[in-house]
Amino acid sequence: MNIEKWKSQILRGTLEYCVLLLLRQTPRYGYEILQELNAYPFIAPSILCSEDLKGGSP
């Protein structure tokens, strides 16, 4: 397995646990979760870009 695939798999699992951790702290809607995770772009840089959260077009 090459390093890039390995990193990708680790990040996928990390994102799921981060979402669960946020939901454990307090109930949240999807947009609130994205805003909170946006502070940590290394977790999912392709999903959580700031333009998407500002209402930019895909």
Order of helices and strands: HHH
Q: How far apart are the termini? A: 32 Å
If you average the pLDDT, what whole number results? 76
The biggest beta sheet, please? none
Gyration radius, to the nearest Å?
13 Å
Determine the strand fraction and express it as a percent band. Answer: under 5%
**Helix content, binned percent:** 55-70%
Broad shape = elongated
Number of strands: 0
Indicate the low-confidence ranges by residue numbers: none
How many separate domains make up the residues? 1
Counting DSSP H or I runs of 4 or more residues, the number of helices is: 3
User: What structural class results from the helix and strand content?
Assistant: mainly alpha
Question: What's the structural blueprint in terms of helices and strands?
Answer:
Elements: H1 3-25, H2 30-37, H3 50-53
Account of the 3D structure:
By secondary structure, this protein is mainly α. It has one domain (3-53). It is 60% helix and 0% strand. It is built from three helices and no strands. The protein has helices spanning 3-25, 30-37, 50-53. The longest helix is centred in the N-terminal third of the chain and has 23 residues, at 3-25. The mean pLDDT is 76.
